[in-house]
Amino acid sequence: MQRDIAMQLTSEQIAMISIKEASLNDSLKRNPLVDYFDGYFHVTLNTRGESPTLGYIVGNPDAADGSTDAPRCLLTHVGKGVKKCWENIPNFYPNVTIIESQVMPEHFHGLLHLEFKKGVNLGRVINGFMIGCSHEYWDVIGIDWRSNRGATKEEWRAIARKFQDKHHTRSFRGPALFVRSYNEVEAVTEEEVEIKRQYIRNNPRKRLIARSKPDRFLISRDHHSANWTLSRALNAVAADKWIGRDPAKCQKLQANIQSRLKEGMGIDILGNMQLLSSARKVSLICHRADSNLFEQQKAAVLKAAREGAVVVSAFISPRERDIMKQLMVEQLPFMEIMDNGFSERYKPTGKAFYSTAENRHVQLTCWKYIYQRETQISREMCLVMNELARLISGVPDDWWKSF
What we know:
The chain is of the alpha/beta class. It contains 14 helices and 12 strands.
């Protein structure tokens, strides 16, 4: 439903907005296609300088939820204030329903539902929440933010100009608790809402697991192979029968691939790197022409894995992902070719986090990292990822037909 919420902006205002947007990290930019007046939102806020001001993680990573030793964040006075402010949002905005939250030492996760009400959008709600959190912070560090309440508008402006900070790290009274921008993800289905709830709740447990096994979550960057060359990646695109028949299109897609590949054809790796040295590796590449033989392929791949082979795949198609789920169920090792680069803070998500922690999973990427709200994988990227799987496994795509 379209809503008439736009206002006329001057060219100077538009230019200032553009400058601000360009200076923001991609993960902090707002999505122009999202209706921020209605829907489910997962919000993440980071403390300034990533300072662990809000609490510290305790517990046993193997303890059950609800037990006395379950992973949790013990909150400081500031952390308790943040939690209180979040739970207090509906008192200021009755159209907001609080669903879940998790205070971590240096960041905060919150999940809420916003029902449409004219003049109330996500930005307004979160701005009020951040102001309240800063007030709680100032109470702890002894800043009297309640003074000057009787000042006139002109007096307020004079005070604000005196303490103006173009980087927005503090107001005229004191430092802000959180950085000004925030990262949000809209959850559009009930299933996604539950996934977000579990993600938020499991933050303390994952922190303890990563802390106890740090080597398994380190990103090892820029590995090289004499056989992994730019020409091999570009030839994988040209060899496709649909792309190769159109030279102009092929050249364009090859240029796109070259811009996405890491410089120097480096490969980044996360997880159990010993799997790369396994004596036997098999590829998993499902072709449409073999769709009627999928059960045979699945049985062969799983049999090889149960006998000690390491499965290598980009796990792109639904059939490939179906086999990956079974590998996880049976706790069998595998290598996953990723469709994006690793950010500095990258950690595997969902079940992949636990399979990595248990040394059964390694992720590899040949791509530069690009922030994406939604996964966007092109045909030419799939071709290159499958070529990397062939290189690592050293077997033809149809090895399973004679297995």
